[in-house]
């Protein structure tokens, strides 16, 4: 057996992404708020002294919700050298180490996020961020500050992912608008949640080659089951 490394989980992500469908494929594409909650003994506020001087953080985390660890040789699966990134339409293969695929030998995710604030309440320590691409409940294995002079490379080549994904226009059906009003007024749901929902949908979460204007897709976001359809460059939220 190849050598393995065991590393601790230091906390868990709490995000509105309750399922994988809809999660942006990279960080920093949407301003969606989430927080990490540290677990003992890493919930020591001293471990975060100085962190509020950084605007962005790197999160290292575990792809804990992979259907099968296709690329994890230690779980007895065969190493697959190539994957099919959704960005290439899902039908073109490319080397796994030339992608950010979740199916890789060490199922470790890496995401740059914007740091908002840290909150401490008795022994509970929460770090609020925006822009994360992590499923709710994702184990966090490390947090590091983003260092601008070193981590930002202005003219970097980014292969098949050179351009930011295009965004679609998001509109609301009359019914969905009415529901939104009710949720805001009666249930005190912050407007922010609906703005975040729009940003996520604008990235068009559908798998490649789905061009059925009649089809209603469902995305779970926060406590909502968002029903939407896609007509050309417009996404309509049909109901919540
Ligand atoms: N930014 C990270 C990276 O580069 O390592 C992740 C990139 S990966 C392409 C992003 C996708 O991982 C998301 O769209 C979501 O479908 C999936 N994902 C997020 N959290 C996950 C988890 N805990 N387990 C498995 N897959 C997850």
UniProtKB/TrEMBL annotation:
Domain of life the protein comes from: Bacteria
Record has Nucleotidyltransferase as a keyword: no
Pfam families named among the record's database cross-references: TrmO_C, TrmO_N
Keyword Lyase among record annotations: no
Start and end residues of each TsaA-like domain: 7-155
SUPFAM superfamilies named among the record's database cross-references: YaeB-like
Record's keyword terms, sorted: S-adenosyl-L-methionine
InterPro entries in alphabetical order: TrmO-like_N, TrmO_C, YaeB-like, YaeB-like_sf, YaeB_N_sf
Gene3D superfamilies hit by this protein: YaeB-like (2.40.30.70)
PROSITE patterns: TSAA_2 (PS51668)
Signal peptide (UniProt feature, chain positions): none
Family: Belongs to the tRNA methyltransferase O family.
Designated name of the protein: tRNA (N6-threonylcarbamoyladenosine(37)-N6)-methyltransferase TrmO
Species classification: Bacteria, Pseudomonadati, Pseudomonadota, Gammaproteobacteria, Moraxellales
